[in-house]
Amino acid sequence: MSIPDHDQLDADIDWFATDAAGHVLHMASGGGVLPASVAASQADLLALHQHFLTRLETGAAQLAEGVDTAEASGAARYARRGLFSFAKTNLHDRADTRYQLLARPSLPLRLAELPPELAPLLHRTQLPGSVAALDQLDAADIA
Question: N or C terminus: which one in the chain shows less Cβ crowding within 10 Å?
Fold first, then answer.
């Protein structure tokens, strides 16, 4: 079952992507539009979400400059599991596709480290280039 547009509007949906270097990204939608590859399957998104929430922590989270520790607790949780964590810059502004880095992992997770059944689900949603040095990104660039 897909995630309809009206369900995306008022929800802060956690979704996931990878980059060309194989890093894994966590994205908090803040009421923004999901990429078509993410919205295509609620079941696939749930499987990825459950995996990342139950994955063991592998290292520290490095909060981005200026990020409030209390506001970034969820982002830090994902970063401690190896994901680069971003949140929508302008909440509930569907036309704005910009995201800001909240936390980066000290030990980045790679796509190749995921269970074989999850890697193909994540590989469908990919940012061109590498996320390693980014402080911002545009979700419109994610295919």
Answer: N
DSSP 43-66: HHHHHHHHHHHHSPP-S-EEEPTT
Instruction: With 0.90 as the threshold, say if the pTM is over it.
Output: yes
Q: Has residue 94 got a pLDDT over 80?
A: no
Answer for the pair 39, 11: CB distance below 8 angstroms, yes or no.
no
| Average pLDDT score over the chain | 92
Where b means 16+ CB within 10 Å and e means fewer, 44-77 reads: bbebbeebbeebeeeeebebbeebeeeebebbbb
Q: Strands (DSSP E) along 2-135, which ranges?
A: 14-19, 24-28, 61-63, 84-88, 98-105, 126-127
Q: Name the band, by pLDDT with cuts 50, 70 and 90, for residue 114.
A: very high
